[in-house]
Every structure is written in C-alpha cells, then in structure tokens.
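pasting for ref. prot 1 ->
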Amino acid sequence: MNEIRLWTALITPMNPDGSVHYEDLKRLLKRQEDAGNGVLVLGSTGEGITFSEEEKREIIKFTASQNLKIPIMAGVGGIRLETQLEWIDYCNELDIDSYLLVTPLYSKPGRYGQTEWFSALLDRSDKRCMIYNIPSRTGVKLVPEVLLDLKCHANLWAVKEASGSINDFKNFRNTVPELPLFSGDDALLPEFTEFGCVGLVSVAANVWPIETKLYVEKCLTGDVDNLKPTWSEAVKALFSAPNPIPSKILLHSKKEITNGTLRTPLSEKDLSDSSHLLDVDRAVQEWYLKNK
C-alpha cells in the first residue's frame, strides 16, 4: 500500500442514549475505505476521551475486525500514563497500523516531562506512532526539543501539527527535518505544504471523503489557486461550533448517520443555526465536480 496522505479523524456515531451505533460506524468506515483514506479512531473528533476503557476496547476491536483495506490509527491520550500503557497493550494485539500520541492533558508538562511521557508510550508500542501537538485542547504546546530527544526512536514515525500556527509548523520542520509532518488543520494545509507538509489528518474528510482527498492532492502538488474561498468557508463552517458538533449535524442531515448524538459536555445546542452547513456542502460538491 502506498503511504497514506489523508487520514480521517473519524467521528463516533451514536444512538440517542449515547451508546455507539455500530452499523453507522461500519458504514462510515466503508466510506473511507472506498475513498482510500486512512482512519483515526477515538481521537478528539471521535470524542474518544468521553468513552470508558471498556467502550474504547469495543470500538477499536470492532474497527479492526472489519478487514479494511485501509490503515487504522488509534488515538492515545489522557492524563494517567498507566491507563495509556494498558490501552496500547490491548491495541498491540489488534490488526491496526499505528497510534496517535497526544501531549498529556491538563498537567502542562515541560520538555523533560513530555519526553518521559512519549518515551514510555513509544517503548510500549509495537506499531509506528505519530506525535500530536494540539495545545488548544491539551493546554500545552509540544516542545520542539522533545522531538530532538525522540527522533531516533524506532517507533516514532511522524508528527501531527495542529497549533494553528504557521510559525510553529516551520519551527518543527526546521528542528526535525527528517520527520514527516502532517497538518492537523484542514484550512492551513495549502500554507503548510509550502514548508514541507506531507499530508493531512482531517475533520472535513468525515463529510467529504473523496472531495477532501482531491483537496489534499492539489495542495501537495502546489495546485492551490482555486481552493479558496470554497475550502476556507467549508472548514470555517465545520468549526463554527466545537468539533465535531457541525460535522455530526451535517452528516445526519445528509443521512450518513442515523443520529447526530453527542456526548456531554458537547451539545448540538451550541450550533444555533446549521443552514450554512448545507450551503458549504453544496459548494464543496460543486468544486469537486469542476476539478476532479
């Protein structure tokens, strides 16, 4: 299989009571397989932190059992190290491709704390790992020197940069030029590719799997002249309320999932008007038809 350049940070579809809707999950996985996109399961877009450890095990086991022809990445993130190590131990036994390791939540560690955290996770893994910088969610930036400390680890494969800062991306690129860098921000992919970005871990691909794949291909080849305003408006709409609220509402409107259910503390009430979502959906589909 060729190296995947687009990973979809998959939503987790739910029943009205908040339990996982496995038939919908199977359908969403098949949509991504048909598009040829890798899938990230139980990331922040998948509301992974809201699930119990037992639920997470059921979700990742179900995903791995689908015999997909695309790679699967499992999200790893929390506060307690031992819990994450136990999660990796479980996932090591499944047919998945890789892990996404996020900086520790809430505690805001510095360089050495971050290095010890990631070293422990990398050591326990028997799969390749992508380190994830998302300070808006974790409360702390990934210290670039941590990557210097870890760059020779056999399991460190790539970095996902989602700080929203072009300067931060350039800093990571300059610090560890040998490590592949993926954008974690759909909207900034055109800018990031100018500085060596190799792919995207995407929210938008939940709604538009094949359309986002074309968007990534155009960004990576420098064909970016006709991407705006369609894609900037589309991504803006998907983040017009806390992610993944707009994506779930739009997927429900498109009948791709049975319910738009979210787990507390997320609430669809935080998106008072969803009409703009249908507008950007039409615009993205029109863009795709003109550019495929």
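and prot 2 ->
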Amino acid sequence: MLLWKEIRNRKCGGLKFRRQHPFQKLVLDFYCHELGLVIEVDGGIHDNPEVKERDINRTSELESVGLKVIRFRNEDVLNNMDKVLKSIIDFAET
C-alpha cells in the first residue's frame, strides 16, 4: 500500500506505525501506539450507507477507549500524498 511505504520506519514525523494491527475484534489499517492514533483508508465501498454507518460505529467504539481516528479516502492517498502526510503530522501535534 502506498501510504504504508510513506509512514513505515518512522518516516512520517518520527511516528512508529503498525499495519493491519489487531485491536479487540477489529483490524486497524494503521496504528500508532505512542499516540493511540488509528488511520483508516476508505475506498468507494465506504460510500454505501450501511458501510458508512458501520464506520461511524467503529470510530465511536475506538474513541470510547481513548483512541483517535483519522480517515482518508483512497483517492487522497493516491492523488495527494503530501496533504495526507501533513494531515497526519498536524493531527499528531495536537
């Protein structure tokens, strides 16, 4: 995955991410334990109302245990990686 190439080995703001990290009954796309930060990358299927509802519930579940969640569209990762990486760093700094 393109995003993994850019964030692995502390390439993004010195943050350590894990890919496809199991958490409770979920698998997180990317997870930074240091910050409790979850990054989810969503494709077109996430436009489906049922999937949107599931995403909302998933985010709420993660936030209820103190994790922070940010989501990006596949299109953003493919077409605007610099903006995605800046958003991750900015989010981590808040």
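The first helix runs from residue 2 to 7.
The mean pLDDT is 92.
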